[in-house]
Structures are given as C-alpha cells and as structure tokens.
Specification:
The structure holds two protein chains of two kinds.
Chain A (H helix, E strand, L loop, with lengths): L4 E3 L2 E4 L5 E6 L6 E7 L6 E7 L2 E5 L6 E5 L5 E5 L8 E8 L7 E2 L3 E5 L1
Parallel strand pairs in A: 2-11
Antiparallel strand pairs in A: 1-3, 3-8, 4-5, 4-9, 5-6, 7-8, 9-10, 9-11
Chain B lengths: L3 E2 L4 E5 L4 E3 L2 E2 L6 E7 L6 E6 L5 E3 L5 E5 L4 E6 L8 E8 L9 E2 L3 E6 L1
Parallel strand pairs in B: 2-12
Antiparallel strand pairs in B: 1-4, 3-9, 5-6, 5-10, 7-8, 8-9, 10-11, 10-12
Classes of the chains: A mainly beta, B mainly beta.
Chain lengths: ~110, ~120
C-alpha cells in the first residue's frame, strides 16, 4: 500500500514564474492538506481540500491556489513566485472523520 | 493568535537517558493534540495523538505523552532513548470549531542522542 506520494522531488524556479506541485493521497484517504515548511521551522498550513472543495485555508496569499480531483489527488499552484516561497512543500492526507494526517516526502522548491 | 510552543530547541542526550520534550498551546478550548517525528532524510511520521479520554497516551517506539489541561501542555516522554531516536520532533494541535482539520505545528525540537 503506497503512502502519500508527491512530485516532483525537487524544483528550481525563477522569481515571477508559476509552479504546480502534485500529491496523491494514501489509499482510502479523501482529504488532502498542504503545508509549507521553511528551514528550521515547523510546517505551516496552507489549505485543505475535501470533496474537491477548499474546506479550510491558512494565512497564505491568493497566489497560492489548489485543486482536488475526483480521485482525491491534489495540486498546489503558486503564481508570481517570490524568493520567500523557497521551502519544502508537504502534502498530507487523511480520511474524513479520523484524526492524524499522513505526510508525503515533500517537494523542495527553490526560487532564484 | 493561537500558537504551539516547544521550548526546547535542541536537546542532547546520551543513550539510555530519559527524555521529556515540552509542548504548550495557547488555546483555551478543547483541542486535538499530536506529536510527529521526522527522522533524518525521512518524512514526518505520527508518533501519537490525543483526542479525549485517558490523558496518558502511548504511541509507537516506546513514546508516551501526557495531556495536562490545566497547564495547556502535552509533553512527550520516553524512559530510555536510543541512538535511533535522533530526529526532529514536532508538537501539533487541531483547533475545534474549524471547517477542517488544519494542524498547527510548533517550531520543533531537535533531539541528538549519542551512543
């Protein structure tokens, strides 16, 4: 049983560009959350998707957007990249009504 | 604003020493509490969680945590650490009355265990 998978593993982008990160949840999970983890910090919640809708959003600008597909996989899009967007982006999945989120390995985004 | 505080930034122990990592949260209502661990080169893994009931929670790999409501604390403990426990430890909460189940994380504690 595959856990949470994310692609790509690493990504280098230039300021002003746009990026799309992808996540496939653990089998049986229908809820996907995205987090940003800066170096030396704990993960910060970006948003959560359930039933293809954004159910909850953290304190991130509108440049950060997402999508969930009918198969529960999800994308995170970031527009107009800034140097400060450089971070590890984590995807986590869970089953509705249960506690504990399972994390993927993350995508390391570097903005130059 | 609600927050999660992990007061120990870096803890260094010898093998067989006892471990206690502090975690405090600032929200006064009912919260769900978690400890996650990130071993070097690996992704975040759930160690244990508390929703309700017995305030002493046992997790994987011999870890346990105690919820003390009056102190807004959820400290992580292990009686005897091993070199393989070297990792980053994160405390996290889910606040009630939210549309979703967003985790609010502390900044983490780095544990280094020497053999």
């Amino acid at each position: 049983d595959a856990g949470v998978t994310q692609s790509p593993t690493h990504l280098i982008k230039t300021r002003g560009q746009q990026v799309t990160l992808r996540c496939s949840p653990k089998s049986g999970h229908d809820t996907v959350s995205w987090y940003q983890q800066a170096l030396g910090q704990g993960p910060q919640f970006i948003f959560q998707y359930y039933e293809e809708e954004e159910r909850q959003r953290g304190n991130f600008p509108d440049r950060f957007s997402g999508h969930q597909f009918p198969n529960y996989s999800s994308e995170l899009n970031v527009n107009a990249l800034l140097l400060g967007d450089s971070a590890l982006y984590l995807c986590a999945s869970s089953a509705q009504g249960t506690g504990g989120q399972y994390f993927g390995p993350g995508t390391r985004l570097t903005v130059t | 604003a609600q927050s999660v505080s992990q007061h120990n930034h870096h803890v260094i122990l010898s093998e067989a020493a006892s471990l206690e990592l502090g975690c405090n949260y600032s929200y006064g209502g009912t919260v769900n509490l978690f400890w996650y661990v990130q071993y070097p080169g690996q992704h975040l893994q759930l160690l244990l969680k508390y929703f309700s009931g017995d305030p002493l929670v046992k997790g994987i790999k011999g870890f346990e945590a105690e919820f003390i409501k009056s102190k807004f604390s959820f400290n992580l403990r292990k009686p005897s650490v091993q070199w393989s426990d070297t990792a980053e430890y994160f405390c996290a909460v889910i606040l009630p009355n939210q549309a979703g189940t967003a985790l609010i994380f502390g900044k983490g504690t780095t544990l280094s265990v020497s053999s």
